Amino acid sequence: MRMQNPGSANRLQIMATAGLMVAALALTGCASGKKELTTGSIPKTTRSLDALSGSELTRAVDGIGQAYERNPKDRNTGLSYANGLMMTGRNAQALAVMQQVAISHPSDREVLSALGKAQAAAGQLEKALGTILRAQTPDRPDWRLYSAEGAVLDQLGRSSEARSRYRMALQIQPNDPSVLSNLGMSHVLSGDLKTAETYLRQASQQPGADSRVRQNLALVVGLQGRFQEAEQLASQELDPQQAAANLQYLRGMLAQQNSWKQLSSQDMPKKKG
């Protein structure tokens, strides 16, 4: 499906950019890359930041911030604090934290990765690209860095290069849901919603696919006019708070496209005269 209207294309670009997962970078040194708060002086929890509700996330980030104030040079605390800040929308503060952590750990690959993520979240895309490239090592390439590089390239309008990076990431980490989701949202940028849906469905079926992947799939389905199906996809979370957040995300994004009322009316069963 190719979008012909320039205004629609611009709104699609905004939506796809919002759905790209620069957050695929590892942030804590864990082999799995999960953002667990379980080490050092960081307040402990058995749940990752992604699994917390809004109020829980705010409390967790405040606790990490207190640990950061006590020891701003601690690598893991700084990484977790910056990640939490970005998850709560405080991108400028997250970048300031990562800049401080990078001063203390200038050669640390994960620190550079997280700095690149923070720069991208703060809108410093060219700087983010340079930082991510500096963190990558050709002899030991990191698939998360390839995916993050692709996400930044997509935001810079260099989609062909971005997709090559996603494919390089998938060669190392086949069927990773975050990379497949990024590849799908890359096709949203060019208005190819059917191809985007194919990749996003594949992503959503992978073990480890999180709420963001399902949000992106619901969005692309909704943009094609299948609104009830999109709403059902957005609601498929075990946690009612997560389901509500997904629906809010879907409605907000579709409202940017002026599609909410239109798609809703299209999917409503017609009354027989």
Structure overview:
The protein is mostly helical and 273 residues long. It has a domain at 27-141: Tetratricopeptide repeat domain (Serine Threonine Protein Phosphatase 5, Tetratricopeptide repeat), CATH 1.25.40.10. 66% of the residues lie in helices and 0% in strands. The protein is built from 14 helices and no strands. The chain is globular. The model is unreliable at 23-43 (pLDDT under 50).
Q: How would you classify the helix and strand content by structural class?
A: mainly alpha
CATH architecture field of the domain at 27-141? Alpha Horseshoe
CATH superfamily of the domain at 27-141: Tetratricopeptide repeat domain
> How much helix, percentage-wise, in residues?
55-70%
Characterize the main sheet: none
Summarize model confidence as the mean pLDDT. Answer: 80
DSSP helix count? 14
Can you count the beta strands? 0
Order of helices and strands: HHHHHHHHHHHHHH
Distance between the termini: 34 Å
Strand content: under 5%
Low-confidence stretches: 23-43
Radius of gyration: 19 Å
The CATH topology annotation of the domain at 27-141 reads as Serine Threonine Protein Phosphatase 5, Tetratricopeptide repeat
Query: Briefly, what CATH class of the domain at 27-141?
Result: Mainly Alpha
Shape: globular
